[in-house]
UniProtKB/TrEMBL annotation:
Pfam families: CH. This is Calponin-homology (CH) domain-containing protein. Keywords: Actin-binding, Repeat. Residues 55-87 have a biased composition (Polar residues). Signal peptide: none annotated. SUPFAM superfamilies: Calponin-homology domain, CH-domain. Residues 1-44 form the Calponin-homology (CH) domain. Interacts with F-actin. The lineage of its organism: Eukaryota, Viridiplantae, Streptophyta, Embryophyta, Tracheophyta. Transmembrane segments: none annotated. GO terms for biological process: actin filament bundle assembly. Residues 50-87 are annotated as: Disordered.
């Protein structure tokens, strides 16, 4: 039932669908990849203003986490250099 549901939702979105529900339940990897690619292509065709706000928030959040982690790593390496007296 879930396999049929995802296919029907993808069709309603306007995605090109090339697989059957059996391909999902039997885990046909290549066909599942085509479904995923079709949904991603549909998403990328959407204008930026119409995209769900959650997508841009998650991208910005991961960038800030990366920046804060690298800053912490730099601070930790500087303090270890000072402790060893090589600075």
């Amino acid at each position: 039932m879930n396999a049929s549901y995802i296919i029907s939702i993808a069709r309603k979105l306007g995605c090109s669908i090339f697989l059957l529900p059996e391909d999902i339940t039997e885990v046909n990897q290549k066909m599942i990849l085509t479904l995923t690619a079709s949904i991603m292509y549909w998403f990328l065709k959407q204008p930026v203003e119409e995209r769900p706000s959650g997508a841009s928030d998650s991208e910005n959040g991961s960038q800030s986490e990366t920046i804060s982690n690298s800053t912490m790593d730099d601070t930790a390496s500087e303090s270890s250099i000072e402790e060893n007296g090589t600075r």
